[in-house]
Amino acid sequence: MLAAVGETVGEQSGVLGLGMEGLLLVGGYAAFATAHASGSFWAGFAIGALAGLLLSTPLMVLSVWLGVNQIVVGIGITLLGTGISSMLYDARFADSKPRLGAADPWTVPPLSEIPVVGPALFAQPGMFTIAFVITALVSFWLHRTAPGLRLRAAGQRPASLDAAGGSVVRTRSSRCCSAVRWPASAGPTSLSSRRARSRPG
Known about the structure:
By secondary structure, this protein is mostly helical. Helices cover 73% and strands 3% of the residues. The model is unreliable at 192-201 (pLDDT under 50).
């Protein structure tokens, strides 16, 4: 869900998200390594988002600033993220193959006591609930606020945004960096809902 939110924001601004898989892998590895070392899933989420932000820098420079073909750049980011995450995992965890336990659930009594639906929706790790809140807030922001309108104009009517005194490059650059946090966080989100996989991909 977080990956879809980030993809939506990025593409609404006119930046294709073909490098999402690379961001997921790098964010997932960074989160796994951080959570394994610190014992904190929340620290893992933060570092995973930061790792994705760093990987998005070449995407922003090449696609937005220099106008390089976004399909080529996206494929390159995916290959780069796949290679980096696999190399780092093999170098550090190939022999031990550690696993992480599930995060503590956020229960919402008495809703969590409803048969079937309660445990599925109201007794999940915190990031599960936060993902739904983020989705609702981003939807409202995109369609009911002036910054959301400017972002959609950058992707759908860039000439109109320029005519209104806005900057397409600045809008796309800022959204490229901010939107990429959600795909990068989506990688570590799976760590809080089930045991981490032993391979990054």
